[in-house]
Amino acid sequence: MTTLTASFRDSGVVAWRNLINIRRNPDWLLSGTVQPIMFVLLFAYVFGGSLGGGPYREFLIAGIFTQTVAFNSAFTVIGLANDLQKGIVDRFRSLPMSRLAVLLGRTTSDLAVSVLTIVIMTVCGLLVGWRIRGSWTDAIVAYFLLLLFAFTMSWVGAFIGLISTSVEMAQSAGLLWLFPVTFISSAFVPTHNMPTALRVFAEWNPITVIGDAVRELFGNPIRVGTPLPTGWQAENPILYSILACAVILAIFVPLAVNRYRRVASH
């Protein structure tokens, strides 16, 4: 058996262990299932009337999709921090297994959580009037793009979880930076009326562009009541989204692996 094959086998075992833990502690899924439903209902019915009604709801859902899979990286943060604090990582280190398996197993199991979240959000979106108006091929690409982004954000979460000194710190650090990054975007409202500095950041924010790419693939409005976005990233949202994910992975996978090696060697 090759080293790569052994790494994937060990990662599958770790991922299965993580999923079993979720099955035994279903309350862990609350933030990944109840929170997006609350956001959909809040923005669709509380703010939707003043922001465009039905067209706004179709604009909104892609943003909620993108924001939610980004927030799911908190599962990775807390999961790794919890394993470190309880000594689970030390036990894994004592076993004849690939060191990559712990990180890849964690990010893979959290990707499965994102799949469940997306299914729930799709049903919720359909109930509030959202529809897939593009082709089913484009819709599959949209879901794949969301899962790629979810996997990418899990690696960011893995690094944060490994540098956190406690589970309590991980809970704060895993979400604190996500709020400004997700809200300074077009996930919920167009960026047209933002101050110049915030608008420039929002227009290049991967969450904005991934949301727009998903809207385009689903055949939903890219903007409601404002001009369409301009610029290379707006004209090539799918390509930019894939490149952004590739760059983030290229940065955070080595950072997380190196940090894990340092933690595991102590």
From TrEMBL:
Domain of life: Bacteria
Name of the protein in question: Transport permease protein
Pfam families referenced in this protein's UniProt entry, alphabetically: ABC2_membrane
Gene Ontology biological process: response to antibiotic
Domain ABC transmembrane type-2: 27-263
Residues that span the membrane, as ranges: 28-47, 59-82, 103-128, 140-163, 175-192, 238-257
GO cellular component, one term: ATP-binding cassette (ABC) transporter complex
This protein's UniProt keywords: Antibiotic resistance, Cell membrane, Membrane, Transmembrane, Transmembrane helix, Transport
InterPro entries: ABC2_TM, ABC2_TM_bact-type, ABC_2_transport, Nod_factor_ABC_transporter
Location within or outside the cell: Cell membrane; Membrane
Subcellular location, principal: membrane
Family classification: Belongs to the ABC-2 integral membrane protein family.
Membrane topology summary: Multi-pass membrane protein
Molecular-function GO terms, alphabetical: ABC-type transporter activity
